[in-house]
Specification:
The complex is a heterodimer of chains A (75) and B (570). By secondary structure, chain A is of the alpha+beta class. Chain A is built from 2 helices and 5 strands; from the N terminus they run H-H-E-E-E-E-E. Classes of the chains: A alpha+beta (75), B alpha+beta (570).
Chain lengths: 75, 570
């Protein structure tokens, strides 16, 4: 299992946004979450990705966790 | 033009649901002239209206009751030369109607026009949870018609209730709920029948089953909505001498849902009037059996036969899906809180509703207590200037509303960034010193307890989802768990129709299935941890009606805000 520190994960947020926007053609939210052995990127999607898109398991060596949260709006 | 002022004066009396729906309908009409695609129009409308008053576009569209009223209103309005002229003027020149503008011109124009359309043309005086009332002075023929129709409906209802189709069962309609038909019930005979409920959705009390009818007066055809009151309690208590069916399966033979009880009868019956569809106008008695259960064909034939014998072709019967009563939410955000409390509603003049987060003051400075609230809401997405008044309750009040002014905007974020590169230093919060003499309660949080300072949420592998809670006047007390931190999160800004970028927010999931942590108007609300320490200020969330997706809330860490502006809690 890939391990990453919180600093690794924080540093990978912006590269992840850029890369995923290229892959998915949608704005994504990117944060960090602790996992069993360190930290991972939490990636929020507006909608489910197309079936033929392979989502990366790591970005800059940081594990990824994807979730379709739907559109986010200011309340 | 006397009608104009009447309509505008009555605008405030109209329920916000009506006004919002009017806005949407009218805006859509205008936009359809622009050549935009339906998708583009939907997106624009979403930006303009979604979230206002707690309604989503899908909810607005799904409620044919009011849309139908508005269509009638607009159609009627266009027959009145002065109103038709206003409609045309608004469409062609939306910014130049001085007698209607003030604040957001487009919005006010739309509201004004539809208030006029509703109040004058449809003759609606008010729409409340208890039904619809109309102006006095209906033409005598309409009054007579109402009396005539009323007696027919009463007679038909009583016969329906006493109907017996099976030797062993008193009535297949026993356990009748006095609800009315559905808006989806638009068939050959056209007119939907509508329902309204009082209270907060209880299945008791007095229900009104208004039916839309048309008379045979010379053109222009006039319409009036009649109200018949059926009292559910009286039916249940046997005061109307209605036999109750104990074993409906004897009639329906297993096609009734298993969990049948007296609160959940096999049928709900709507009864009213429908357009006859005949060339000379007129109406028929409309009976709508609302049920999810499949009705046995032979049973249906018996019902039809019964009515045909007694009323000939004056009855039109149809099965509909169950009607969900439209219940007005209590508008708690209008509650006036003095002393000010955390969680009460706030707004800038003509700004969106939001929530008072907590009370802070400058560290090491002897200054007034300040409200900490939502940056995007209290600045109206950057459109409200510094030193503008902040109002409680959040009524979108105008600057003359002196009584409700509580604070003055002193510091807020720049408009939130439109791209992530410039989002770096833009946290979504605002500070507003209290006006002298405005009392506040700095520590007590309704339904939660005493605020125990501030803290940073503690995410670590052993506690990956720390518990949080909040109270606001909009959505009450809710509990949840923080599920991620330091998010760079894009969000749709309904005020501008643009995507903005929140930085370093944390994410919250509501506790339990389908429980959302926050809703519209909750921006600014203080999020607390399990130890009642303030940990964040709510900014954004997923649409509460997007049920296919995960419901999430996003909040800016309180510690970050306190540090950024050198603040401490009062």
């Amino acid at each position: 299992m890939v391990m990453a520190t919180k600093q690794d994960a924080l540093a990978a947020r912006r590269p992840a946004m850029v890369r995923l926007k290229q892959i998915l053609h949608q704005d994504v939210g990117v944060g960090v979450v602790p996992n069993a052995k360190g930290w991972a990127l939490k990636i929020n999607l507006n909608s489910a990705p197309p079936d033929d898109v392979d989502l990366p398991g790591t970005i800059n060596g940081v594990p990824t966790k994807f979730e379709v949260v739907g559109p986010v709006k200011l309340l | 033009m006397a009608g104009h002022s009447d309509g505008i004066e009555r605008l405030d009396a109209l329920p916000p649901e009506i006004v919002i729906k009017a806005n949407v309908l009218f805006a859509r009409t205008m936009l359809q002239r622009s050549g935009l695609s339906d998708n583009e129009i939907d997106e624009l409308l979403h930006g303009l209206f979604a979230g206002e008053g707690g309604l989503s576009l899908s909810e607005i569209a799904a409620e044919p009751y009011t849309i139908d009223l508005l269509r009638k209103g607009l159609a009627q309005a266009c027959r009145v030369p002065a109103l038709a002229g206003l409609v045309e003027e608004a469409i062609n020149n939306a910014e130049t109607l001085p007698h209607l503008t003030g604040g957001d011109g487009r919005s006010v124009i739309v509201k004004g026009l539809f208030a006029i359309a509703l109040a004058l043309a449809v003759r609606v005086e008010s729409v409340t949870g208890e039904g619809i009332t109309f102006y006095e002075g209906l033409p005598i023929d309409l009054v007579q018609l109402e009396q005539t129709v009323g007696s027919i409906v009463d007679g038909a209802l009583r016969e329906t209730l006493k109907l017996g189709l099976d030797e062993t069962a008193a009535s297949p309609l026993g356990g009748l709920l006095p609800a009315a038909g559905a808006g989806s019930d638009e068939g050959k005979y056209g007119s939907p029948i509508h329902a309204a409920a009082d209270g907060d959705g209880a299945t008791s009390g007095t229900f009104h089953a208004p039916a839309v009818v048309t008379n045979t007066l010379p053109e222009p055809r006039q319409e009036v909505i009649l109200k018949r009151n059926f009292i559910w309690h009286d039916i249940l208590n046997g005061k109307l001498d209605i036999p109750y069916i104990d074993e409906p399966r004897k009639v329906f033979r297993g096609r009734i849902p298993n969990k049948f009880n007296e609160q959940d009868p096999p049928f709900r019956v709507g009864i009213g009037l429908a357009y006859s569809g005949d060339a000379d106008g007129g109406f028929r008695i409309a009976i709508r059996l609302q049920t999810e259960a499949e009705i046995k064909q032979t049973c249906w034939k018996q019902l039809e036969s019964f009515f045909e014998k007694r009323a000939g072709n004056r009855v039109h019967m149809k099965r509909t899906r169950p009607v969900i009563l439209q219940v007005r939410r209590r508008q708690r955000f209008k509650d006036h809180h003095r002393p000010l409390i955390m969680g009460s509603s706030l707004s800038a003049a003509q700004g969106p509703h939001s929530t008072l987060g907590c009370f802070v003051k400058r560290r090491n400075v002897d200054g007034p207590a300040m409200i900490l609230g939502s940056g995007h809401a209290l600045s109206n997405s950057g459109q409200t200037g510094l030193y503008s008044a902040i109002f409680q309750p959040a009524t979108g009040a105008d600057i003359e509303d002196l009584e409700n002014r509580v604070a003055v905007l002193d510091e807020h974020c720049l408009p939130l960034a439109l791209d992530e590169e410039t989002a770096e230093d833009r946290l979504d919060y605002a500070l507003a010193p209290l006006i002298e003499g405005i009392e506040h309660e700095p520590t007590l949080i309704k339904d939660i307890g005493t605020l125990a300072g501030s803290a940073e949420l503690d995410f670590h592998p052993q506690s990956p989802t720390p518990a949080v809670q909040k109270w606001s006047v909009f959505s009450g007390r809710t509990e949840g768990n923080a599920t991620a931190e330091r998010l760079l999160q894009p969000a749709f800004d309904p005020s501008t129709g643009r995507i903005v970028h929140l930085i370093d927010v944390f994410e919250i999931r509501g506790k339990g299935d389908n429980v959302l942590f926050s809703g519209d108007g909750d921006s600014g609300a203080l999020v607390l941890d399990a130890s009642r320490r303030g940990v964040g200020i709510i900014n954004a969330g997923t649409d509460r009606r997007e049920k296919k997706h995960a419901g999430r809330t996003y909040a800016t860490p309180l510690s970050l805000i306190l540090q950024r502006s050198n603040l401490e809690l009062v």
